[in-house]
Specification:
- Two copies of one chain form a homodimer.
- With 315 residues, chain A is of the alpha/beta class.
- Chain A has two domains: 186 residues, inorganic pyrophosphatase (n-terminal core) (Alpha-Beta Complex); 121 residues, Diaminopimelate Epimerase, Chain A, domain 1 (Roll).
- Helix content of chain A is 38%, strand content 17%.
- Chain A contains twelve helices and eleven strands.
- In chain A, the strands form two sheets. A six-stranded mixed sheet of chain A has the order 6-7-8-9-11-10, sandwiched between helices.
- In chain A, strand 6 and strand 7 form a beta hairpin.
- In chain A, helix 1 crosses helix 4, helix 2 runs parallel beside helix 4 and helix 4 runs antiparallel to helix 5.
- The longest helix of chain A is centred in the N-terminal third of the chain and has 16 residues.
- Chain A is globular, with a radius of gyration of 19 Å.
- The interface between A and B is large, with 37 and 37 residues.
Chain lengths: 315, 315
């Protein structure tokens, strides 16, 4: 595993770099990719982002300026915020086994690249990338703005338990470059579409409580998404909703990706390790936030998750 | 107006200090009072907080350990986060005209004390107090925990537009003392009662949109409060909900106080001055947040507010 200095030195020695983001891209992977691209270009290098079909209205503006043109021939391949090759977007499948440097912050990181660097204690991959980019040169506003998106979105605007003193220190340094972080906060944390509001209301109305109210099970069926004409962006981070309910320490959100295939997000308190539960079903993540995909009828999905939680809670 | 150094020097020269908080106390005033008390005690001084009858379940634990016992005879009186003597709690009325040092961060601060220090650019009074306490001695965890409450609550956990690099730098320094800031975040920013969630869902479900979606009108009828057995605490700050809806720049929340009497909260963007609208109906407030009380049937309340907004928007 690389140190920050060695990762910076590698990047400094490379050129013609293509950067990969993960499937269903969030603010952290998009922000990191854009910031890394800006940082490499500031060093005079050629760098682009491999197109990701899952961008939302909120993330697209940070990605678009750096999207690779057709026919770009890369020499080095770097991934950001990707724990495993299973999380490559479909259009990046040909790159499996070919990544030169993977930069990540997930405890479940699989070190799938030729060179790897991970900081599992970081709230966002953007925190680690900040240190790498700071070792390469000055943090310009072009680097700082997407990095602020990366850091702030992955820690729920500094409210999640993964937030540390380093998270705040990085935010302070980024803001000091003069970026318009206020618009980022308004767009990502203080604006909801009307469809989003209807989605949240439906989830909360149908929420099922178990184990004396400690466990909540919420579903986002395809039929709900379709009836509201909801987009990917509308459904982002719905998994944080259940954990906000007083008394809940295990919030399961099951989203139907296609008929009979459910993407599970699990948010937990100290009592239950979310990764241990999701690993039972081939997933992974962090101690307090993990995920997996289950192909089964909804009743079976519910049964597996509830029994998985029981099993892990029992130690 | 004092500098940070002079305010620190004054406090260092005093003893037997009584600290005042404002009416309807929030996290900033309570957190500042507790932190200042802890800081003064760390210097070997005697210091207490004047009891405030408006504490909530969330703020009480930070205030209670420092509440003044009956008969405490103070030599110096200090107020924190109080812009004007009109905001003294009723039980502090006798102290009007007698405050020795006022520490505040409101642009409308009236410098009502013998000595005054204000930093209008600070998101929280806690940011200014951090600098003062840091000039007095090491920031202990006993000081840092309530200060974190002060800073984080007044900037909406670093999401509001008043958040600056200094806000984050202070948060980083406080967290480094080893405090349990995660519990603060959970209690203040990531916990909603089930009743609160049902209230929000009902408001959003029944929301009425006008003027192409720029104006939203939401109601909290007595019947809704009663059917959910909702408390005052459950209904707190419901008025901030409407302003989060994409495209909305005028959010009206009408809460029925008693049959036929509606308390109106109006939150606005730059297009409409909220105070000008509410003044039409005998109310007042700030440019972006104002209120009034209207005694009329709901249809008439709606009509007046919509026409008031139209009138003020037309200039």
């Amino acid at each position: 595993m690389l140190t920050v200095r060695k990762a910076a030195a590698l990047l400094k020695s490379w050129d013609n770099i293509l950067i990969l983001t993960h499937i269903r891209p969030d603010g952290d992977t998009v922000g990191c990719a854009a910031a890394l691209c800006a940082g490499l270009r500031a060093l005079g290098k050629t760098a682009y982002l491999w197109p990701n079909p899952g961008l939302t209205d909120a993330t697209r503006p940070y990605f678009a300026p750096y999207a690779a043109p057709d026919g770009f021939e890369y020499a080095k391949l770097v991934s950001v915020d990707i724990a495993t090759e299973n999380l490559f977007p479909d259009n990046a499948a040909p790159y499996k086994g070919h990544v030169d440097l993977a930069i990540d912050h997930h405890p479940s990181f699989e070190a799938f690249a030729r060179e790897n660097i991970v900081r599992p204690g970081a709230a966002a991959c953007g925190e680690l990338l900040y240190d790498i980019l700071a070792a390469l040169g000055p943090i310009t506003p072009e680097i700082a703005l997407p990095l602020y998106v990366a850091v702030s979105t992955d820690c729920g605007c500094f409210a999640y338990a993964n937030t540390t003193a380093h998270t705040h220190a990085v935010a302070a340094a980024l803001i000091r470059t003069g970026i318009d972080y206020r618009t980022v906060n308004k767009v990502f944390f203080r604006t909801k579409t009307r469809v989003r509001i209807q989605l949240e209301a439906a989830l909360l109305r149908e929420a099922e409580f178990y184990d004396g109210g400690r466990v909540v099970f919420m579903t986002v069926p395809l039929s709900l998404m379709e009836s509201l004409s909801a987009t990917e962006g509308d459904a982002e981070e719905l998994s944080s909703l259940g954990g906000q309910i007083e008394g809940v320490d295990c919030a399961i959100t099951a989203r139907e990706l296609k008929p009979g295939e459910w993407k599970i997000s699990l948010r937990t308190g100290a009592r239950v390790n979310a990764t241990k539960v999701c690993q039972l079903y081939g997933g992974g993540g962090h101690a307090a936030a993990a995920g997996c995909t289950i192909e089964a009828p909804l009743d079976e999905v519910r049964r597996r998750m509830l029994s998985g939680i029981e099993q892990v809670a029992a130690g």
